[in-house]
Amino acid sequence: MEHKHIYPDVIMYSSIINGYVKKGMLDEAIDLVRKMKQQNILPNVHIYATLIDGYFKAGEQELALELYNEMKFAGLEDNNFVLDAFVKTMKETRMTNEVQELVEDMMSRSVSLDLVNYTSLMDSFFKLGKESTALNLAQEMTDRNIGFDVVAYNVLINGLSRVGKYEVESIYNGMKEMGFAPDKATHNIMINAYCRQDNSQRAFILWNEMINQGFIPNSNTSKSLIKGLCKAGEVEKAMDVLNKMLVYGSSLTSIIHRVLLDVSSKSRRADAILQMHEKLVRFGLKLDRAVYSNLITVLCRLGMTKKATAVLKEMIGAGFLADISTFNALIRGYCISSHLSKAFDTYFQMLSERVSPNIDTYNFLLEGLSGGGLMKQAGKLLNEMEERGCVPEASTYNILLSGHGKIGNKREYMKLYIEMISKGFVPELAPIMCSSVILQRWER
């Protein structure tokens, strides 16, 4: 490394260490630091910041903190580079309280923050749910005459939108009045913000404006807009967004599939649901277990178990085994359509295929039994449920209370009610109201 009449100094070492860290060669970087010390060349704060950032990115939090402590012991003061390394880690990985405390300590010791530091810190604290700290930073920027740029506005709008307590459109308009042109990220953020506010019409207008300005919406924004439009009953507009989304290279996902099946199911017609499914397959939707499960779930939710069973056979024929969500959908469908024997056949099939039932499985079955007044069988199933290690929840007790109330079984009703209260569960109003009428009759 050393050449005739050329001796490495801290700047040269810093450059080489930076190269090692960028390539992920952290061991080589540390070896070079040891060599520096042997030559009585002390690492500066920039070298420590580079190493700390590198170890954080590699997931080596303890080593990064050790380097920070070593830097402090050497008498070096924090600077923006060190702070930025900690802030990026806090933001991207939501690290421990120790990292957050160190960041807040650096801020309290008046590390001179610049626009990049403030923006990154705001973003981090919003993501950590510390909205007041993020807003204090925004105010501090204003007090120090540090002007916002588009990125800072994006962070502020996105953070406030996610909190859901603030009207972000005024900030968006204020940004434009200040002469800042919204970029691609701004449009994506605002479209998502409008969707959170159930203002899918404004989101759709902005989505089209975004495209006209040459920006391509990201897939998550398009998914949010499709979901918002479907919720508002604007299926044609949702399909328009979907078509353009596919043109721009985004892929159809099981999430979009489920959203569009849900809106199709409002017609309560199996053919409408199946037609939407087939249309999405033609558009390039890849058939996998999640997609089949979506279709089975939506059909079963309406009690269309024959159609759902046919889809299940197709699913198995395509090489996909039923999972817990598929079995639960079928059980629920059979209970809705009053086919309890088929629901229990499906339950036993689950067990034979070693798919463990969960709380939803038992709640669906108990609801079916309770609805038919079969409370002895419900009691046996409750015991079996507990034997299999599935702990009853408040919803389970409410189902049983309703069932016992409907058939006038006062003793079991009161026993379950007391047991429910003793476990800290709060009875729902509906089952209690339904059963209170019967209880009054008992008292007479």
Automatic annotation (TrEMBL):
Pfam family, one: PPR_2
PPR repeat locations: 9-43, 44-78, 114-148, 149-182, 183-217, 218-252, 288-322, 323-357, 358-392, 393-427
Domain of life: Eukaryota
InterPro entries in the record: PPR_rpt, TPR-like_helical_dom_sf
Signal peptide: none
GO molecular function per UniProt: mRNA binding
UniProt keywords, alphabetically: Repeat
Family per record: Belongs to the PPR family. P subfamily.
Protein name: Pentatricopeptide repeat-containing protein
